[in-house]
């Protein structure tokens, strides 16, 4: 067992008279050495193990707050180890580190090991440090929440025994209860943000699959979001539908390549049957994940048709979930315009006309009526809400309105990320070897972007 104890200028952010422990598990010594160098100055105690068995021995002796484990290890892989670690210390935050986009292994680790994040090798040093930092910060919030709840329970018993006429003490109690509620809300927001990052991660994995169209799921998600807003659905339901759009192609990762390398109308009968299974695979992958159950059900039924001749359950009309009806229209619109439905590319106007002709047959008529206006809103939103920038003009605090990708199509920075000075410095360093890193799009109504425009 290898142990490092470190200190850092950021120690007050994480610690409050309590030691925080991070365990790294990898069967490759050079990887552990790299992790040791990367985290040597961080304000927590580091443990290192070269196998799942050794890591479990450490956990028998030490309380671990965060685990960062490799997936591919001999004897006991990352999924098996994290599952055992979850039983031993269920409150530990678990992060999976892997160089393989092995769909089944990731799902196994997700379901059995309860991972909160997945990080691809080779990792970005700052990104990995931030992920571990966020996991520790969330763990600290959980600990603080339990402490505050214990204080609340104890003070409640004391107040019960006190004279009800002590009005000032009652007011103080009310104030502390509000603080406790605020802390619980903050903890919930942190957890919810973690799931949003999970959705972005899987959306990026889907996009990098050779059988899927780059950026397709993001376009479907945005159009689904606007259609849901147009139907005046609650904000929480709009968010669920948007996330279903990002993840609706997840099941295609299992399909054979010959089912994905040509338009749907070019598939033979056997290939169409195989293709029809992808909503079931996507649903199976997500249904056991906390927070994603509603998204999983939307994905399962987005290939149902209004007349009941779709799949997998042949649901009819309004028995199909509203999110599935919206997703069906958004997905088919872009399948037509991106050449995924028929052999030739279809214009936006022709795609809208085709969908209108199938209104009441394949699609919910109420959703179809909103399609043309929703497409216009997508275009207007993009034009009004973003500014095109060159690398030299990027400033700290600007927020990306589009992903930043390398010349090889790898997502370097996700949409919605706030640029830091370090991110900009790294992009400038990469520019010498990647000439595609020239144009960037940032959100217009942002303080840093506004300052740039006012000074230009």
Automatic annotation (TrEMBL):
Residues bearing PTM 4-aspartylphosphate: 70
Record carries keyword Phosphoprotein: yes
Biological-process GO terms, alphabetical: phosphorelay signal transduction system
Alphabetical list of Pfam families matching this protein: HD_5 (PF13487), Response_reg (PF00072)
GO MF entries: phosphoric diester hydrolase activity
Domain HD-GYP as annotated: residue spans: 191-387
InterPro entries assigned: CheY-like_superfamily, Cyclic_di-GMP/3'3'-cGAMP_PDE, HD/PDEase_dom, HD_GYP_dom, Sig_transdc_resp-reg_receiver
Tagged with keyword Lyase: no
Keywords assigned: Phosphoprotein
Segments forming domain Response regulatory: 21-136
CDD domains in the cross-refs: HDc (cd00077), REC_HupR-like (cd17569)
PANTHER family linked to this entry: CYCLIC DI-GMP PHOSPHODIESTERASE TM_0186-RELATED (PTHR45228), TWO-COMPONENT RESPONSE REGULATOR-RELATED (PTHR45228:SF8)
Name used for this protein in its record: Response regulator containing a CheY-like receiver domain and an HD-GYP domain
């Amino acid at each position: 067992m290898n142990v490092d104890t470190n200190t850092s200028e950021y120690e007050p952010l994480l610690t409050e008279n309590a030691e925080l422990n991070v365990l790294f598990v990898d069967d490759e010594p050079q990887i552990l050495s790299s992790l040791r160098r990367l985290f040597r100055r961080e304000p927590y105690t580091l443990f290192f193990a070269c196998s799942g068995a050794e890591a479990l021995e450490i956990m028998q002796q030490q309380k671990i707050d965060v685990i960062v484990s490799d997936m591919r290890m001999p004897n006991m892989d990352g999924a098996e180890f994290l599952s055992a670690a979850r039983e031993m210390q269920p409150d530990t935050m678990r992060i999976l580190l892997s160089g393989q986009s092995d769909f089944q292994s990731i799902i196994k680790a997700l379901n059995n090991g309860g991972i909160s994040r997945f990080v691809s090798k080779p990792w970005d040093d700052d990104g990995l440090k931030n992920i571990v930092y966020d996991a520790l910060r969330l763990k600290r919030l959980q600990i603080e929440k339990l402490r505050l709840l214990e204080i609340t329970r104890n003070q409640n018993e004391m107040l019960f025994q006190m004279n009800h006429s002590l009005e000032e003490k009652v007011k103080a109690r009310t104030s502390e209860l509000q603080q406790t509620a605020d802390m619980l809300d903050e903890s919930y927001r942190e957890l919810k943000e973690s799931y949003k990052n999970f959705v972005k991660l899987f959306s990026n994995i889907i996009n990098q699959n050779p059988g899927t169209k780059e950026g397709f799921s993001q376009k479907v998600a945005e159009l689904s979001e606007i259609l849901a807003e147009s139907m005046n659905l609650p904000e929480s339901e709009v968010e669920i539908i948007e996330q279903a759009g990002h993840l609706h192609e997840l099941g295609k990762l299992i399909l054979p390549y010959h089912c994905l390398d040509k338009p749907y109308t070019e598939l033979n009968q056997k290939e169409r049957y195989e293709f029809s299974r992808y909503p079931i695979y996507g649903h199976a992958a997500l249904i056991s994940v906390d927070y994603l159950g509603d998204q999983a059900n939307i994905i399962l039924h987005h290939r149902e048709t209004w007349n009941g001749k779709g799949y997998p359950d042949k649901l009819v009309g309004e028995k199909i979930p509203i999110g599935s009806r919206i997703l069906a229209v958004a997905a088919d619109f872009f399948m037509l315009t991106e050449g995924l439905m028929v052999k030739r590319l279809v214009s936006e106007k022709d795609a809208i006309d085709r969908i209108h002709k199938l209104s009441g047959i394949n699609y919910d008529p109420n959703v179809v009526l909103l399609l043309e206006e929703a497409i216009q809103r997508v275009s207007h939103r993009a034009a009004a809400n973003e500014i095109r920038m060159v690398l030299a003009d990027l400033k700290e605090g600007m927020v990306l309105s589009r992903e930043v990708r390398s010349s090889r199509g790898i997502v370097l920075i996700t949409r919605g990320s706030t640029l830091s000075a370090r991110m900009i410095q790294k992009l400038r360093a990469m520019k010498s070897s990647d000439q595609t890193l020239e144009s960037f799009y940032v959100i217009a109504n942002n303080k840093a972007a506004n300052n740039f425009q006012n000074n230009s």
